[in-house]
Amino acid sequence: MILETKELRKYYGTGENEVRALDNVNISVQKGEFVTIVGTSGSGKSTLLHMLGGLDSPTSGDVIVDGKEIFNLKDEERTIFRRRKIGFIFQSYNLVPILNVYENITLPIELDGKKLDEAYIHEVVETLGLTSKLWQRPNQLSGGQQQRVAIARALATKSAIILADEPTGNLDSKTSLDVMGLLRVSCEKFNQTMVMITHNEEIAQMAHRIIRVEDGKIVSSNDLNKEHKVVGGDIL
User: Fold this and answer.
1) For position 174, what pLDDT does the model report?
2) Does residue 14 fall inside a structural domain?
3) Is residue 59 part of a domain?
4) Which CATH number covers residue 39?
5) Nearest-10 crossing angle of helices 118-127, 101-111
């Protein structure tokens, strides 16, 4: 088990004004699995992703990443753990404009003081079709190419898990499907674990499993057309 939540809750306000963004959420993700989390706006899927990445703290409960309960860590320890164990792909790409493609991909590794695995990075770059773009800057690339760079950056760190926040939200439908195909190929080729939130049902269907969130609760988990029952927020 690479990722697990235990009775995860996130409440805002009190009394009549209390909002339960996450309400007793228990999920588990296996190593190498590609999971999409779907739900309407306000369903809690973004809150859940932020909790999984340690970007926000829960009201109660915990998130376990690669055997470590991340909310038992001090802030600085959690920051270091997140940088080393969790990769992020954002809708806005978050590329550094003054750096070229290669420098953007390797930046998190350089910041962590690690030695670059040039052979692995080359394989990631080739898989994502970026070999001819390595020395260009982000403003010389299309939206789809910039998203590929963001994916390559996340893969290059060899993170235990990659969290993707609506990564195809700014792309046209064809490019979105291309990017999703690359995500799945990359996930399987490099044995990466991927959790992605999306509101697009067609995109969601390209993952190994779909988890549906409504009103802060997990309501279903659909794996290879086999429906899993949800009892008390737990996926069975």
Assistant:
1) 82
2) no
3) no
4) 3.40.50.300
5) 140
pLDDT digit string, tens, across residues 127-168:
888 999 999 999 999 988 998 999 999 989 888 899 999 888
What amino acid is encoded at 93 in this protein? Answer: Y
Q: Which CA distances in Å does 198 have to 52, 165, 178, 211?
A: 15, 7, 15, 11
Describe the crossing of helices 143-156 and 173-189 by its angle, rounded to 10 degrees: 20
What is the span of the domain harbouring residue 90? 30-49+72-231
pTM: predicted TM-score of the whole model, two decimal places: 0.86
Helix axes of 173-189 and 118-127: crossing angle, nearest 10 degrees: 140
Q: 61: phi > 0 → left, psi -120 to 50 → alpha, else beta; which? A: left
Calculate Rg over the CA atoms of the chain: 18
Concatenating the DSSP letter of every residue in the chain gives --EEEEEEEEEES-GGG-EEEEEEEB-EE-TT-EEEEE--TTSSHHHHHHHHTTSS--SEEEEEETTEEGGGS-HHHHHHHHHHHEEEEETT----TTS-HHHHHHHHHHHTTPPP-HHHHHHHHHHTT-GGGTTS-GGGS-HHHHHHHHHHHHHHTT-SEEEEESTTTTS-HHHHHHHHHHHHHHHHHTT--EEEEES-HHHHTTSSEEEEEETTEEEEEEETTEEEPEETTEE-
Q: Is residue 168 part of a domain?
A: yes
Q: Which residues pair with 9 in a beta bridge?
A: 60
Number of independent structural domains in the chain: 1
Of residues 54, 63, 56, 23, the one with CA closest to residue 213 = 23
